[in-house]
Each structure stands twice: as structure tokens, then as C-alpha cells.
Write a structure and sequence with these properties.
Radius of gyration: 22 Å
Helix content: under 10%
Strand content: over 45%
Number of helices: 5
Structural class: mainly beta
Distance between the termini: 46 Å
Order of helices and strands: EHEEHHEEEEEHEEHEEEEEEEEEE
């Protein structure tokens, strides 16, 4: 029987019990691609370019925008998929205004959401009688439910599963944390495994000029040109960090609980003056946390209030 492997990257999941460090450090990119539509001013036709693989990995979005914004209209759409996060790029040059006194572009997060996932990859069967489980990721909801490579999934609840697309559609309207019955065909018999739906983070981002960005927050160190914000705060789990500095030296970022235990740390190399990232605290107990940014001898600290919504 011939199997056709269907990569199901959106099915990857770090179980709700995973640590914050595991979720936030899972940034190894496994797939990246971009589609560019560009029409030079005064011309009738658009040109299209598709970047995949090494071309996509080496593509510098900020430089491309800076090089073309003066003489062309263009749209950049793309996706950067890692094990813990999917970043969707949606940039339209018509939505950005050229600034004479600013040539610094930076990422702007438009929305952040949780995408429900299982935590496995599958291949379709020639007889369309189910999908064969190829890979079960360690720490995923699929592993926690007891699904193993070689199992054949035939139903999820009352949905017939004949392909990886069917599996994705079966959780299209499902909330993270819900329990679904997964039907496994095993040597002529059938068993039902309850599976808790997990999630991965999905960001939709664009790019904008940020030289004169102002963050209306209380800054812990009153220095001109250095601004640090956490939003939303209080948060029910997902919050966004924004940091601006006139210095271009590396950043060290850490997160500690109220007892002083460090639960996350990260280093930003080649810092360009603007930092804009998402922290996921969903799996941690409600309470007070402290996020700290260190740049050289300067230190900025903000409190994060995590609300319990469970």
C-alpha cells in the first residue's frame, strides 16, 4: 500500500503542561516562504516572485521594503513556521507612508491567537479508509492521549477522516482545551481515545516605520530614547513586549516569578533598536511576574499580572 505523506505542520503542538521556556524557545524554522507582487509606478503589469527554501531564509523584508517603497507598489505575503509558532506576514506598501526623517522599519504585530493542533503528522491511504499516523511529537496532546506511530485514525467525533486536511478541518471550530474522541483502527478492532486539544501561537505581522514610535507606558528607567511596554497587562496568558532603545547593543531578556525563580531567558543579537515579541504565560499560575531587559549596564523591569481564567 502506497502512502502519500502530507506534512501537517499546523498539527504540531506543545501540550498545555509544557513549560514557558519550551514554548518560547521552540523557534527553529521548519518552513518559510514568501509571495511578492510588485508593480512599478507608471507600469501596467505586475511582476510576481515566489521565494522558498534558502531564498526565503535569506530574504530581508526590511531591506526589500526600503529599496522599493519609493518607486513601486507591492504586496508581500508569507509564512514562517516553527515548532512553537506560525508567523504570517501581510504587508501592503499602500498602507505605509514614506517618512523623510525615518528609514528604520520594524515588525508590527497585528494580531496574536492560539491555533488548535493535535501534535502529529499523517499520511493518506489509497483506500481512503483513514489516515496513518507517521509521527507523534514528544510532549504533544496526541502523545498524551496515547496515539502512536502506525495507528490509523478513522474518525474524530463524527467527522470522517480520509486525509490530513480532514484532520485539520475536524478542529477548525474547536476551542483549545476541549476534549475530542479520536477513533483508532487497530487490527480489525476500534478504540476511542479522548484527546485534549492543544495549541500553537499564530502571529499576523506587518512592517512600519518606527523611528518616532511612542509607547504610552510607565518606563522603569527614565532615559530618553529607551521605552519598554507590556500589553495587555493584566493578561489572561498572552502578552506582547515592546522595547525601543537608542543603543544597538545586544539584549538579554528574562522572566521570573514572584519568588525570584527564572522561568525564561533569551538573548537578542544584532539588536536594531526595536524589539517586539509575544510571551505566552497560559500554562502558569495566576499571579505576579517580572520581565527584565538588560542592555549593557542598563536594566528595565516591568511587572506582569497574570489573571486566572480557568
Amino acid at each position: 500500500m502506497k502512502n502519500y505523506l502530507i506534512p501537517s505542520l499546523l498539527l504540531f503542538f506543545f501540550l498545555l503542561q509544557n513549560s514557558l521556556l519550551a514554548q518560547l524557545s521552540a523557534d527553529e524554522v521548519v518552513r518559510e516562504n514568501y509571495l511578492i507582487s510588485i508593480k512599478k509606478h507608471g507600469e501596467q503589469n505586475s511582476e510576481y516572485q515566489y521565494l522558498n527554501g534558502e531564498e526565503a531564509q535569506s530574504f530581508n523584508i526590511e531591506k526589500y521594503i526600503a529599496d522599493n517603497i519609493q518607486h513601486s507598489n507591492f504586496i508581500i505575503s508569507g509564512k514562517k513556521i516553527s515548532y512553537g509558532k506560525t508567523i504570517k506576514i501581510e504587508f501592503d506598501s499602500k498602507n505605509i507612508s514614506v517618512q523623510d526623517d525615518c528609514n528604520q522599519l520594524c515588525k508590527s504585530i497585528v494580531t496574536v491567537s492560539k491555533v488548535p493542533v493535535f501534535g502529529l503528522t499523517v499520511s493518506a491511504m489509497d483506500d481512503l479508509q483513514g489516515v496513518l499516523v507517521e509521527t507523534v511529537y514528544e510532549g504533544s496532546s496526541a502523545e498524551f492521549a496515547g496515539i502512536q506511530p502506525g495507528d490509523m485514525i478513522t474518525f474524530v467525533e463524527d467527522s470522517i477522516i480520509q486525509s490530513g486536511c480532514d484532520l485539520l478541518e475536524s478542529i477548525g471550530e474547536v476551542e483549545v482545551g476541549e476534549v475530542l474522541d479520536v477513533f483508532i483502527e487497530e487490527e480489525g478492532s476500534q478504540k476511542i481515545l479522548p484527546l485534549i486539544i492543544g495549541y500553537k501561537i499564530q502571529e499576523i505581522v506587518t512592517y512600519d516605520y518606527c523611528c518616532n514610535s511612542e509607547l504610552n507606558v510607565e518606563v522603569s528607567d527614565e532615559k530618553i530614547g529607551n521605552e519598554f511596554s507590556v500589553f495587555p497587562n493584566p493578561t489572561d496568558g498572552i502578552t506582547q513586549l515592546k522595547f525601543q532603545s537608542g543603543e544597538r547593543t545586544d539584549l538579554n531578556i528574562s522572566l521570573t516569578d514572584v519568588a525570584g525563580h527564572q522561568i525564561y531567558k533569551s538573548e537578542v543579537k544584532d539588536f536594531n533598536g526595536f524589539y517586539n515579541e509575544v510571551l505566552d504565560l497560559t500554562n502558569y499560575a495566576a499571579g505576579l511576574y517580572f520581565v527584565q531587559i538588560i542592555q549593557g549596564e542598563q536594566v528595565w523591569t516591568e511587572k506582569i499580572v497574570l489573571q486566572n481564567i480557568k
